[in-house]
Design goal:
Layout (H helix, E strand, L loop, with lengths): L3 H13 L2 E3 L4 E3 L1 H7 L5 E6 L8 H17 L7 E4 L10 H16 L4 E4 L18 E2 L6 E5 L11 H20 L6 E5 L18 H13 L4 E5 L17 E2 L4 E5 L6 E5 L3 E4 L23 E6 L3 E8 L2 E3 L14 H4 L14 E4 L22 E7 L11 E6 L2 E12 L2 E10 L7 E4 L5 E7 L2 E6 L2 E7 L5 E6 L6 E3 L6 E4 L2 E6 L4 E5 L6 E12 L14 E4 L10 E2 L2 E4 L5 E3 L3 E2 L10 E4 L7 E6 L6 E6 L28 E2 L5 E2 L13 E9 L2 E7 L6 E7 L8 E5 L6 E4 L6 E12 L2 E4 L6 E4 L1
Parallel strand pairs: 3-4, 4-5, 7-8, 8-9, 9-13
Antiparallel strand pairs: 1-2, 3-14, 6-7, 10-13, 11-12, 14-15, 15-16, 15-17, 18-22, 18-31, 19-20, 19-23, 19-31, 20-21, 23-24, 24-25, 25-26, 27-28, 28-29, 29-30, 32-34, 33-36, 34-35, 37-38, 38-39, 40-41, 42-43, 43-46, 44-45, 44-47, 47-48, 47-49
Helix pairs in contact: 1-2, 3-4, 5-6
C-alpha cells in the first residue's frame, strides 16, 4: 500500500496535469489516486540481469539500493518477485547468482515471498535447476505467472520446432485461464523480447517471435490481462528504437514482429502490456561499454495489483524513473534495418506511474467463433504414446527419453565443474510432455531403439550411445559408430539403462547425462505411434484428460478465521475437477506466559500470554500480595529479603533475582528518620525516630565504627514504638541508623536504611 508521502507526491503532480494512459483512453485524476490509496493491494517487484562485473556481493548492494528507493516510494512490503534471467556474468556459476539474489530479496521482504527466477542465456544449466523456475505455469494465489525460459525461446534461434512447441504450451495455459474466466493479471515472463530487435546479425532474437506473440495477442483480444516482461538488454539500449532500457508499451500500441526470414517484419497492434522488467546489472560500473543516447539506468519495476487495476512504476536509485524513454538510433549495432533504408525510433515517453485497468469480461473459448485464419489450426505433429512396459517397444521404434521433465537429446555436451570435465548427453525442457499421449514436432529429440540380443542399442543418425571410463573425464557418454548394448529395466516413469556395470546417470553439477557405477537415472519413454495429428486439435483442449492440476483459491485457516482447502482445477482446460472444503479456524495456541508486571502489596500484577501461531497477546490479572498484618501500606511493590541479614549480604527480590547490598531490602515503606539521640545518664542514651506509616516494627543498628563493624542489632517489634533506651555505652563515640519492616508471607520485608547519626558519650 502507498504511504501518505507517496499520495502527497502523486497529488501534487496531478494538480498540474493528468496522466493519459496511451491506448486505454483513461484519464487518471489526483482525487482518484488519493481515493484508491488505502485499498488492499498486492505488490510484485520485477527485474532482470543480476550480473555485476565485480561479483554477486556488489550486485546485492545494487539491489539493496533499489529496494531502499522502492521503499521510499511507499512500497515497504512485497508479496511477489520476478526476475527475467541471467544471474551469471561470465557463464561460470548460475546457482551462486540465483542464491545471492534470492538471499537479498528474502532479507528485504521475508522468506514467504513468491519468487520466480527465469533461465537466461548466460544460465547454462537445465531448466528448473540451480534454484530457477520450471517452464510454464508458476501461478501464485494473487496473480498468474507463465515462465518462458531461455531453452524455450533462445537467444540463438536455430530451433523453430522448440519455439513452436513453447507457443503451444502457452496456448494451453492461456486456454485454461480463459475457461476459468481468470481476471487477475498474468505475467508472462521471458528472458528475451518479442519485438523485431535491431540485432539482426542472422541471429536476432526476434526470429520466430510471432509464434509466441500470436498466442498472447489472441488471448488478450479475448479479455485476459497479460503483462509480458522481458530482460536481456543489459541497461544498454540494444532495442533503443523502442526506448532504450526503459520500454513500456500499452495495449493498443504497435510493435514490430519479425518473421522467420530475419529481414521482414510486420507492424502489429498489441493486445497486452509489453515492457522490460528493469535491468540491475551487466554493464553497471563500466562506462566504456555503454551506448551514448540510450537509457542505461539500472532500474526495477513495481506492480501494485488492486482489484480493478494494476499501478505500474519503474524505480531507479533516486526514485521514480520513466517507464519508457525516447528512442534513439543505436549507431554501435549492425542494424540490418538501417541497411534497408533506416528506421524511425519510437520517440514518445511514458512517465511513472501508469495504470493498467483489469478487464473483468473474459470470453470463454467456446464463445469464440472459429476463424479460418486461426494460427496453428492445421499444424501437424507426430503422435507419441507413453510406454508402460518394455513389451510395448519394437525394434526400430522412435522414442523420446524424458528424465525429470527434460528430454535427453542425442547431442553431446561438455561441461566443467570443480572436480573436472564431464562429457554426456544434453538436456532440454520437456514441459510439453504431459499425459499418456502427446502430439508435437520432436524429430530432433528422438532416439532409435534397435534390438540386439537380450538388450537394446539406442542411437540417432547411425550412431549409438556408448559409456566409456576415462582417467580424467569420468564415465563419458558419447555417440559412436559402434555403441553399447543396454539392459533396460522398470516401467512407466522409472526405466533405467545399464551397459555392463555403468548406468546412464544424471550429472547435476554439469547438467548432462553421462555414466556412473551405481546411480541410475530414471526415464519416462514415449513411442512414436506412426500417426500424425493436429498439434492444436481438440484432444488438447475439448476432450482434455487433465494432465496438469492445480489447487486455486486455497486459504490457510488462522486462529480466528476459517480457511479453504482450495478447488482442484485443470490448468490445461480450466475445468474445476473437485471443489474444496472449508477448514475450521484453528484457535489460539497460547504459550506459558510471562509476568510483565509483578504483583505487590499495593497493586495487582499482569501475566501476558502470546499465541504461538499468530502472535496475538492476552493478559491475565495476578492478585496483589495480601498479608493480614498490612492494612495501611500506601505504596506499591516491595522486595522481600531474609529477616535479620546484614547490609551487604545477598538478598532476593520478589521476582527471584539475586541482588546485593541494601538493594536487597529496598521497599516502598517510608524510611524512618532518627530525630534525636540524648544522653540521659552515665553510659545511657535515648534514641528517638519518626514513625514509618504501616511499619510492623523497626531494626536499629549502632556501632563504635563508622562502617558499623561489630554492630549491635536491636529489633523493635511494634510499629507504634518510636524510641528506645540503650545502656552500657562504654566507647567515646557511637553511630546509629534505623529502618522499618513489615511482614509479607511470614517474612520481614525492610525499608531503606535511614541516614546515620552519631553521638559522643
Amino acid at each position: 500500500m502507498k504511504t501518505n508521502a507517496y499520495v502527497k507526491r502523486i497529488i501534487s503532480f496531478f494538480l498540474v496535469t493528468a496522466l493519459v494512459i496511451t491506448g486505454s483512453g483513461l484519464m487518471t485524476s489526483a482525487a482518484q489516486i488519493k481515493a484508491d490509496a488505502d485499498k488492499e493491494s498486492v505488490v510484485v517487484i520485477a527485474c532482470s540481469d543480476f550480473q555485476h562485473p565485480k561479483g554477486n556481493e556488489a550486485g546485492k548492494e545494487v539491489v539493496k539500493e533499489l529496494f531502499d528507493s522502492i521503499a521510499s516510494e511507499g512500497y515497504k512490503e512485497a508479496q511477489g518477485f520476478l526476475c527475467c534471467g541471467d544471474y551469471d556474468y561470465e557463464y561460470t556459476d548460475t546457482e551462486q547468482g540465483v542464491t545471492a539474489l534470492r538471499e537479498v530479496v528474502e532479507e528485504q521482504y521475508g522468506d514467504d515471498i513468491d519468487i520466480t527466477m527465469v533461465q537466461g542465456n548466460h544460465d547454462q544449466v537445465p531448466i528448473g535447476t540451480a534454484g530457477m523456475s520450471p517452464s510454464g505455469n508458476n501461478d501464485t494465489d494473487n496473480y498468474g505467472v507463465f515462465v518462458i525460459n531461455e531453452d524455450d525461446y533462445m537467444w540463438y534461434n536455430d530451433n523453430e520446432a522448440r519455439i513452436r512447441q513453447t507457443s503451444q504450451n502457452l496456448k494451453r495455459y492461456l486456454y485454461g485461464k480463459r475457461k476459468a474466466k481468470y481476471t487477475k493479471p498474468i505475467f508472462v515472463v521471458s528472458h528475451l523480447a518479442l519485438n523485431y530487435s535491431m540485432r539482426t546479425r542472422n541471429d536476432g532474437d526476434g526470429q520466430y517471435a510471432h509464434y509466441i506473440f500470436d498466442e498472447l495477442n489472441d488471448a488478450g483480444k479475448n479479455g485476459l490481462n497479460i503483462i509480458f516482461l522481458f530482460g536481456h538488454n543489459h541497461s544498454h539500449g540494444w532495442d533503443d528504437y523502442l526506448g532504450g532500457s526503459s520500454i513500456y508499451q500499452a495495449k493498443g500500441e504497435e510493435i514490430l514482429i519479425s518473421d522467420g526470414t530475419r529481414e521482414n517484419y510486420t507492424r502489429e497492434t498489441l493486445e497486452f502490456t509489453y515492457m522490460n522488467a528493469g535491468y540491475i546489472g551487466y554493464y553497471y560500473g563500466n562506462e566504456n561499454e555503454r551506448n551514448e543516447g540510450a537509457d542505461d539506468t539500472l532500474t526495477m519495476s513495481v506492480f501494485e495489483i488492486r482489484d480493478d487495476k494494476v499501478i505500474v512504476s519503474r524505480v531507479d536509485k533516486d526514485g521514480l524513473h520513466e517507464l519508457k524513454s525516447g528512442g534513439v538510433q543505436n549507431e554501435s549495432e549492425n542494424h540490418r534495418e538501417k541497411e534497408l533504408g533506416g528506421y524511425s525510433p519510437y520517440t514518445n515517453t511514458v512517465d511513472s506511474p501508469a495504470e493498467i485497468i483489469l478487464n473483468k469480461q473474459i470470453i470463454k473459448p467456446e464463445e469464440k467463433q472459429p476463424s479460418e485464419n486461426d494460427p496453428g489450426e492445421s499444424e501437424k505433429g507426430k503422435v507419441y504414446e507413453k510406454i508402460k512396459s518394455l513389451s510395448d517397444v519394437k525394434d526400430g521404434d522412435k522414442i523420446l527419453m524424458v528424465y525429470n521433465g527434460s528430454f535427453m537429446l542425442p547431442k553431446i555436451k561438455t561441461a566443467d565443474a570443480g572436480s573436472g570435465t564431464r562429457i554426456g548427453f544434453e538436456l532440454e525442457s520437456a514441459d510439453s510432455i504431459t499425459g499418456a499421449k502427446v502430439t508435437g514436432t520432436y524429430d530432433d529429440k528422438e532416439w532409435t531403439f534397435t534390438g540386439n540380443g537380450s538388450g537394446w542399442k539406442i542411437g540417432s543418425g547411425g550412431k549409438y550411445a556408448k559409456l566409456t571410463s576415462t582417467d580424467d573425464k569420468g564415465i563419458t557418454a558419447t555417440l559412436e559408430t559402434t555403441g553399447d548394448t543396454f539392459t533396460i529395466s522398470g516401467g512407466e516413469d522409472s526405466f533405467t539403462f545399464v551397459a555392463g556395470s555403468y548406468y546412464l546417470n544424471w550429472n547435476e553439477s554439469r547438467g548432462l547425462i553421462n555414466g556412473y557405477n551405481d546411480k541410475p537415472a530414471e526415464f519416462s519413454l514415449y513411442r512414436y505411434t506412426g500417426q500424425t495429428g493436429n498439434i492444436t486439435d481438440t484432444d488438447e483442449y475439448g476432450d482434455c484428460d487433465h494432465p496438469r492440476k492445480q489447487i486455486i483459491d486455497a486459504k490457510e485457516p488462522s486462529c480466528i478465521e476459517k480457511g479453504y482447502s482450495g478447488d482442484t482445477v485443470c490448468t490445461n482446460c480450466g475445468e474445476v475437477l473437485a471443489a474444496g472444503e472449508e477448514i475450521a479456524a484453528s484457535g489460539h495456541d497460547w504459550d506459558a506466559g510471562v509476568i510483565t508486571t509483578s504483583a505487590s502489596v499495593a497493586s495487582d500484577g499482569v501475566k501476558t500470554y502470546t499465541c504461538k501461531r499468530c502472535g496475538e497477546k492476552k493478559t491475565e490479572n495476578i492478585p496483589k500480595i495480601v498479608d493480614a498484618s498490612i492494612t495501611s501500606n500506601p505504596s506499591g511493590a516491595v522486595t522481600s529479603g531474609s529477616s535479620g541479614k546484614d547490609a551487604g549480604t545477598a538478598g532476593q527480590t520478589a521476582s527471584g533475582e539475586k541482588e546485593k547490598g541494601d538493594k536487597a531490602y529496598a521497599t516502598t515503606l517510608k524510611t524512618p528518620t532518627i530525630t534525636s539521640i540524648k544522653k540521659t545518664a552515665k553510659k545511657t542514651v535515648v534514641v528517638k525516630w519518626k514513625k514509618s506509616a504501616g511499619a510492623k516494627g523497626y531494626q536499629l543498628w549502632y556501632s563504635a565504627s563508622k562502617n558499623f563493624k561489630g554492630k549491635k542489632d536491636i529489633k523493635i517489634k511494634s510499629g507504634k514504638t518510636c524510641k528506645v533506651k540503650i545502656k552500657k555505652m562504654n566507647k567515646k563515640t557511637y553511630y546509629f541508623k534505623i529502618r522499618a519492616f513489615v511482614k509479607v508471607n511470614g517474612k520481614d520485608v525492610y525499608s531503606s536504611w535511614s541516614k546515620g547519626k552519631k553521638v559522643k558519650m
